[in-house]
Amino acid sequence: MNRREFAIGLLATPAFIRTASAEVSSIVLGKQYGLPFLPQMVMEDQKLIEKHAATFGVNGLNVGWATMGGPGALNDGLLAGQIHFVNVAPPSLGTLWDKTFGTPQEVRAVCTVQSMPYILTTRNPAVKTIADFTNADRIAVPTVKISGQALALQMAAAKVWGPDKYDRLDEFTVSMGHPDAMQALLSGQAVNSHFAVAPFNYYELKVPGIRAVLKSYDAVGGKHTNGIQVTTKTFHDANPSICKAVRAAHEEANAFIKRDPKAAAETYLKLTNDKKNSADEMVAMITDPDIDYTTAPANMMTYMSFMHKVGRMKRLPSSWKDMFFVEAHDLKGS
Q1: Tens digit of pLDDT for each residue in 291-318?
Q2: Are strands 225-232 and 107-115 parallel, antiparallel or unpaired?
Q3: Which domains does the chain have, with CATH numbers?
């Protein structure tokens, strides 16, 4: 689904927000593909937001889910008020927060979703490191320039060629959702490299001739947040109980994933209609030590400092808390 189709679909939907002081009766949450969104799949399957909303006095909340291939359409939907919560990577939060700072639509985070690396894979035998990419290569990322993968590639490029050349590899990137990017990589069409998230990098690396070139943890300098649950100040201030319910639902979903990864894997397979993989294979991915389903931010300021340094953000937050609602300030993050 492209942005125009998505926008037309949203215009055809009924209004979500009730008048007066009541909180909304319906919300829509946006997500993308892959294991970074497993907590939200658990939340959807077990109706955790509805459950916690009721405990905070919002009964009968209707929760809808929209799945997109990249952050662009999700960000547009959030700012238009048609999607109420979106799961974005640090670069999108930084961009949205900077763009909306001081306005009623200021975008901030309720909590994070997980820490998880991006893995850059390639089928080009000549590519051993990112320095080997040439204009003959095409690297799939969810959205060029603004996705977490795109920024991690820029951070890696800055380490190799210097800060002034941070965008040296941008011309080789193309926007493509992870499922399509994996198929293109495996078929040898359109792209020969993919900056993937789990489970797609696991699938790709099982194929002979495909190798890993870069892990984003190395580019960023350690474990980093991959997904962040955000909304606007306008929505947050008008709907505090729903925001609390979303945070509580994330905490319960994360606890469920850690307590019963096989059941979580089965949820993933069911909601994605994945018929190719077993629950045991998914459990191995979910329990990978590199992956942490947590609501606490990690290395947020590394991203923001880089974006500010290269001119992608006008203002630099003094800490990660500047970009999170005050209720999240109890999280032990960085």
Answers
A1: 999 999 999 999 999 999 999 999 999 9
A2: antiparallel
A3: 3-115+224-328 (3.40.190.10), 119-220 (3.40.190.10)
